[in-house]
Amino acid sequence: MTAVPNTSFSNFAIVILNWNGQQFLSQFLPSVIQHSEDATIYVIDNASTDNSVVWLTENYPEIKIVSLKENKGYAGGYQEGLKVIHEDFYCLLNSDIEVTKNWLFSIKKLFDLDQNIAAIQPKILDYKNQNYFEYAGAGGGFMDKFGYPYCRGRIFDSIEKDEGQYNDEIPVFWASGACLFIRKNNFWDAGGLDVDYFAHQEEIDLCWRLHNQGKKVFYTGKSQVLHVGGGSLSYNNPRKTFLNFRNSLFTILKNHKGVSVVYILFVRMLLDGVAALRFLLQGNLKQCYTIFKAHLSFYVHLPVLLNKRKKIQKKTRKYFSKSIVFDYFVKKKRNY
Q1: Model confidence at 231: pLDDT above 60
Q2: Residue 79 in 3-state DSSP?
Q3: Which residue segments constitute the domains of the chain, with CATH numbers given?
């Protein structure tokens, strides 16, 4: 007799972080409820000042709400809220994501197939242009030797059309925080999310630590979600620029192996300077100044970062060999 696979998702927690996102919740929560079978759905509320919590209570009393007293950002919000969520698997899901039928099946199958897989990301498509990948995660994340994250389906600002080229299931370096499945035990064993990041690239830092513990991070194109993107901060918002530039330096210093980190940081700072100059020539003084502020914040955090690096370096490994900057801007490579 052929064994019937276990299709129960009762040990899955779908966890949506919310901050003043009633509009997104009303638009996208129905798809999560419809397609998440017997998974438990939580909303961690980051001290919203809109009507989110009242609206949820009145319209979806079955949704479990974890209310925080202040806005702790993506990293702090999840880090605090997940402490009271006890299912075996977390799905960290942005509030501006529409999920699709059977989106959980291939995720669970991969987790069941290999106990060493700690985190998984589905295919992430653009909700507003559904034939194309979405910026935040696309077909699975990678990192170049100078600490620049990129994805299959998205390199810098070049976005690929989805033509089934990434319908596979492969190991990746990082899984997008827009829709991140992770085993609860692996999340906490790795230390969870670094609250100093506040938002942006904290999932890359987490995935790096998972790799250092000998765990695997996977992408599956057999599950897909649709992401609006820029729900909290638009892509050209100076705050987003600040966090991306600063947190990228955080991640390099914390995790990059050996003394070569000095060279890597030096090159990155030169390249950041080029980016700032580009903004200046475009007349965008605010974005130019934002990069300067990001570097200043990095210097302010140096003592804390060096202490974290000291603890992490006992396990860290070398992973990267190529420069996506050279491939993109010199060789004009636009696709993965």
Answers
A1: no
A2: helix
A3: 12-227 (3.90.550.10), 238-329 (no CATH)
